[in-house]
């Protein structure tokens, strides 16, 4: 909420961060489904008297917000995507409380994956995977909405078909040019859907979950290229742009995509002993893995008609 008070601009919101919830569903055949979500709620509401006076009569308590997560999780008798759960929560807060004019709900899913035993899916066994699915939903009382989904911690590496040449060389430059290096990154991606109102959201139950898996697949496939020959990457920047473009070309319901791709360096190892004898000579084989410092490369790509 933005207000002008005594010639100052005053903005406020309040909510509850990191509400953790696990939800189990069981289908008729006795097969279990499980999600673990970390939910953050932020409400835009008319509760100025609480800031200016000792009047809390327009405050939705953040403890109440936390409880609502569990109530709504309980009420979801069928499995639901985390985007739909975020929309459901936001709809609740903006319609149930006169004071609430907007709700921002963020969810990060813990990557529990069904296990396979002897090549067979386990009915109720899960193990922790790596990258995380994220979402952020903003719903206004009017029904206007924004839905963003994303991925965090998608670690990708290829051992060849990457180089970096032709960059600025000056007295500070040491880095040799190369057409052969390891390319490694940990992708953080987010993409905005083009839906702008509650009524335009697709009603298909796993729509957003399926889309998340589709986008991840396109990002990964574009990074690596075809299984046998791969695809040459002249820079992280170029690969990032290809990945973003592939997502927008493939999915017309996505209006913009943002990618952060740190360049995680693997340094060539060359060693000489005290007699100046070479004991390890680098031949694109032995590397020193590092996590810092790392290059930081990020960009966003949007359709022209996108409002992002
Ligand atoms: O793909 C790269 N992009 C850069 O901007 C850069 N800078 C650098 O030192 N190595 C690399 N690699």
UniProtKB/TrEMBL annotation:
GO terms for molecular function: urate oxidase activity. This is Uricase. Its main location: other. GO terms for cellular component: peroxisome. Belongs to the uricase family. Keywords: Oxidoreductase, Peroxisome, Purine metabolism. Its EC number is 1.7.3.3. It comes from the Eukaryota. PROSITE patterns: URICASE. One of its GO terms (biological process) is purine nucleobase metabolic process. Urate binds at residues 62-63, 164, 181, 236-237, 263.
